[in-house]
Amino acid sequence: MEQRYATNPTQIPGMTTGDLRATFLIPELFVPGEIRVTYTHHDRIVLGGAVPAGTDLVLPGYPEIRSEYFLEHRELGIINVGGPGTVTADGETYELETGACLYLGRGIRDVVFADAPAGAEAGAQFYLFSAPAHTTYPTALVAPGQGTVRELGDQVTSNRRTLNQYIHENGVQSCQIVMGVTQLHPGSMWNTMPAHTHDRRTECYLYFDVPADARVIHLLGEREETRHLVVADRQAIISPSWSLHSGVGTAAYSFVWAMAGENQAFDDMDAAPITDLK
Prior knowledge:
44% strand; metal-binding; zinc ion binding; EC 5.3.1.17
């Protein structure tokens, strides 16, 4: 388990590109045959990837979280951004097609990731987002497109997008996690505009469906001290509560957004208009 320590906005002016990438970018989550996780001290989130690649992967308990098993004191949101696969939780197997979301609550001891039975064209790639939990909510599986769907933006401003809320206050119940997937329409590149902050939650983005010859320019920092990161397919960003976040791609793409913190109100955000940014 890699650890990333908490940051504050006064660090931004002195950071090099390398510093920014080492602090906020997680470049390699999906490694065949492995589970890779990163612990950020911002809201004590753990995010990572599990790629079975033909073998069963067991989610361990890590010494960094001082738990006998991973979900002893945590909850977990899982979204499959690869081919079909399965997640087995305490003996119950759930089939996750591409884009499906599974919520696992506190207290589940055994979690196993696997590919779908033989015949699937591509292997599963499970994105993991976990936060501390104070109680237990039921396991819930949501098929792609079956969450709360919101159509946002406009083609004129290049941010026409379909947002699917899976884990949220009016959907799958959790202690802290708010999680879903946004897909940009062809010809749109901005994932949210204006940019925004929410000083009550940490948000993490996983960019995927980014073409091999394309990149996303992710904005971060404070309104008067912005920076950017160049992000490739299946790379993740940690966005602290004090940092704005927005991004523009050289082609349309998708991203998983996930948050944990003070509340679960999706619309609790403070806009940062483009005219205010420097």
